[in-house]
Design a protein that fits this description.
By secondary structure, the protein is of the alpha/beta class. It has 17 helices and 14 strands. Its cofactor is pyridoxal 5'-phosphate.
């Protein structure tokens, strides 16, 4: 992979000049999102952390940049016939929004299991949505058939120099606002964003390390450039970067310009989504939190460096976000479920509640189990969901219960 001392090869399909041209082309039609310093995250990680808030785009994701750069380069005939893409995510919405704004018909093919909310959001931007196939690959194949039969222009979500150049404008803005950045940490799905950003970074006036991040369940680019064979697939929070097959164009650029790729766990993604909401008061999706997840996973890798992180998008289902936040509270000890063994006699519940009151712990929910248990007939299991101040407070409650002779087990999350 690349090192900081090696200049960008001249034969790559995207050059710095392409990114500058893209920036001029899309100027005024996408939000120039802020790049802000985070003191709290800097203190937490030991790095000097700068955040690029791409979740503040109109469609809440950076994907607008590449989509618009591509649409603006179509000739009149292509504009009249329209464009097509296979996507169930941010690419679909960015293309649909700017296509409608420019008067270009947009057709999006999505897999049949796509959540209704994503279909509705894309249709809300006046795109024609076709549900086809049970997987992205089947939807992609159908989109290609429609491209051939109807004369549409296919707009690839990442493996297109126009897309890559558009996404690279993120780096131009970041480095203009925070020129001291010496490390960029960039999510990788198909590789469009990191390809564009690395093109800019490696042409900067000072060495900038470019580190890619992938979800542990989808290490496709990681496998390709490192010659590994890690399994690919699973239900990841970072569905925006859950790509099985990286692009051929993006792979060339990543191998030439990117310094390293790190993998992050689902737990670190959940914790990072929660941290960004608590600290920065902004909502990001799983992929958008992957940069911070990398810093939290390998702090020694970034300690003392000036790091730029891209909050790539904020399109997360509200129910899923609620689950992530509650799970994080549970892991931190602020929410807990205790399983307490009781004797089935009058006053037993009162005595347990008394201990909770003495420890100033709020009881949220109670559940008795008398039948489906392996306890003796006169025994019962009591599950108590409760709210504490922190892990130490929870441990004091547990100790108080045990001191009164109760058998207690904490129901832990994975």
């Amino acid at each position: 992979m690349a090192t900081q001392a090696v200049p960008a090869p001249n034969d790559l399909p995207v050059a710095l000049s392409d990114v500058h041209t893209a920036a001029e082309r899309i100027m005024g039609s996408v939000v120039r999102t802020p790049t802000l310093h985070s003191k709290t995250l800097s203190d937490l990680t030991g790095a000097d952390v700068w955040l690029k808030f791409e979740n503040l785009q109109f469609t809440a994701a950076y994907k607008e940049r590449g989509a618009l750069n591509t649409l603006l380069q179509l000739d009149d005939a292509a504009r009249a016939k329209g464009v097509i893409a296979a996507s169930a995510g941010n690419h679909a919405q960015g293309l649909a929004y700017h296509g409608h704004r420019l008067g270009i018909p947009v057709t999006i093919v999505m897999p049949k299991p796509t959540p209704t909310v994503k279909v509705m959001q894309t249709e809300g931007h006046k795109a024609s949505v076709i549900l086809e196939g049970e997987s992205f690959d089947e939807a992609y194949a159908h989109a290609r058939k429609l491209e051939a039969s109807n004369g549409y222009t296919f707009v690839h979500p990442f493996d297109d120099p126009r897309i890559i150049a558009g996404q690279g404008t993120v780096a131009l803005e970041m480095l203009a606002d925070a020129p001291q950045i010496d490390t960029l940490v960039v999510p990788i799905g198909g590789g469009g964003l990191i390809s564009g950003m690395a093109t800019v970074a490696k042409a900067a006036g000072h060495p900038i390390e470019v580190i890619g991040v992938q979800a542990e369940l989808f290490p496709s680019m990681y496998n390709l450039v490192k010659g590994e064979h890690e399994p690919i697939g699973g239900d990841t929070l970072a569905e925006g970067i859950a790509v099985r097959d990286p692009g051929s164009i993006t792979s060339r650029i990543v191998e030439a310009l990117v310094d390293d790729i790190l993998l992050v766990t689902e737990r670190s993604l959940e914790e990072s989504v929660s941290l960004i909401l608590q600290i920065e008061k902004t909502v990001v999706e799983g992929a958008g939190a992957s940069g911070l997840a990398a810093l939290m996973t390998a702090p020694e890798r970034f300690r003392g460096k000036t790091v730029g992180i891209i909050l790539t998008g904020g399109n997360i289902d509200t129910r899923l976000l609620a689950n992530v936040l509650l799970r994080d509270l549970a892991r931190s000890g602020r929410l807990a479920r205790l399983r307490i063994r009781l004797q089935d006699r009058p006053g037993a519940l009162y005595q347990v509640a008394r201990i909770f009151q003495e420890q100033t712990v709020n009881i949220l929910e109670l559940s008795h189990q008398r039948i489906f248990t392996n306890l003796p007939a006169k025994g019962l299991s009591l599950d108590v969901e409760c709210e504490t101040r922190d892990r130490a407070h929870l441990e004091r409650l547990n100790a108080a219960l045990q001191a009164e002779g109760y058998e207690v087990r904490l129901i832990e999350l994975a």
